[in-house]
């Protein structure tokens, strides 16, 4: 089955990989399904997509358990802010969390992963633009926080995530995130969305989070 939005984005990712001199398949496409319901998500799954992103625990809880029963190989990523009181549900439902950004969240996730005996892929969110309204650790505090995640909470951090300021060139933000990852020995870079995934891939993204280019905009 061909899904035109998905096909177009996958082709775009392949072209960006080639332009950056990167191996085919080195970038994971996360199809961001927030605000879309099961019947709208199913055609994308049926077309072969297996990695999806959601912003809110409660919204994901309302639609994904049934979908994952039908397609157990689907991988679900939390890409929106997480409150510590939702950590248990998040660990139960998701396979990866991209928004670890403060000690309280790190401690809650660590506790729940041990309690549920369920390891997750974890990304630390860095507020590269230092925007007060956005979640994420300050870039200057990232090294210390990454060490705290590892040494205090026993967390293995797979990657870093950022959302550049909407009105700025994203490339310097992607470059900054890649540099923080490099000096901390972290391989994963979750960066790039519908409008800027090509420059993100050029800067080393391993995961791109694309919603509207696949699903369209909600009317």
Give Rg in angstroms. Answer: 17 Å
Number of helices: 9
User: Which structural class is indicated by helix and strand composition?
Assistant: alpha/beta
Task: Give the number of DSSP strands.
Answer: 8
Largest sheet: 8 strands, parallel
Alpha-carbon distance between the two ends: 25 Å
Globally, the shape reads globular
* Succession of helices and strands: HEHEHEHEHEHEHEHEH
Major sheet: order of its strands? 7-6-5-4-3-2-1-8
- Report the uncertain regions: none
Report the portion of residues in β strands: 15-25%
What do the pLDDT scores average to?
96
Helix fraction, binned, reads 40-55%
List the helices and strands and how they pair.
Blueprint: H1 4-19, E1 28-32, H2 38-46, E2 51-54, H3 57-70, E3 75-78, H4 87-93, E4 96-100, H5 103-116, E5 121-125, H6 142-151, E6 159-161, H7 171-183, E7 188-190, H8 197-202, E8 207-210, H9 212-215
């Amino acid at each position: 089955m061909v899904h035109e939005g998905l096909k177009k984005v996958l082709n775009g990712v392949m072209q960006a990989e080639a332009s950056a001199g990167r191996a085919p398949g080195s970038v994971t496409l996360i199809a961001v399904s927030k605000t879309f319901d099961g019947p709208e998500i199913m055609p994308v799954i049926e077309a072969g997509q297996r990695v999806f992103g959601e912003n809110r625990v409660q919204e994901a809880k309302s639609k994904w358990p049934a979908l994952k029963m039908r397609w157990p190989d689907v991988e679900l990523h939390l890409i929106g802010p997480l409150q510590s009181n939702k950590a248990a549900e998040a660990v139960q439902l998701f396979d990866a969390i991209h928004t670890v950004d403060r000690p309280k969240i790190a401690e809650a996730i660590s506790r729940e992963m041990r309690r549920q005996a369920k390891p997750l892929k974890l990304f630390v969110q860095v507020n590269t633009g230092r925007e007060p309204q956005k979640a994420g650790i300050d870039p200057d505090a990232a090294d210390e926080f990454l060490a705290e995640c590892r040494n205090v909470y026993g967390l293995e951090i797979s990657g870093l995530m950022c959302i550049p300021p909407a009105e700025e060139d994203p490339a310097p933000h992607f470059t900054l995130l890649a540099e923080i990852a490099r000096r901390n020995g972290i391989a994963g870079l979750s960066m790039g969305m519908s409008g800027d995934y090509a420059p993100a891939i050029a800067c080393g993204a391993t995961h791109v989070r694309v919603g509207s280019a696949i699903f369209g905009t909600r009317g």
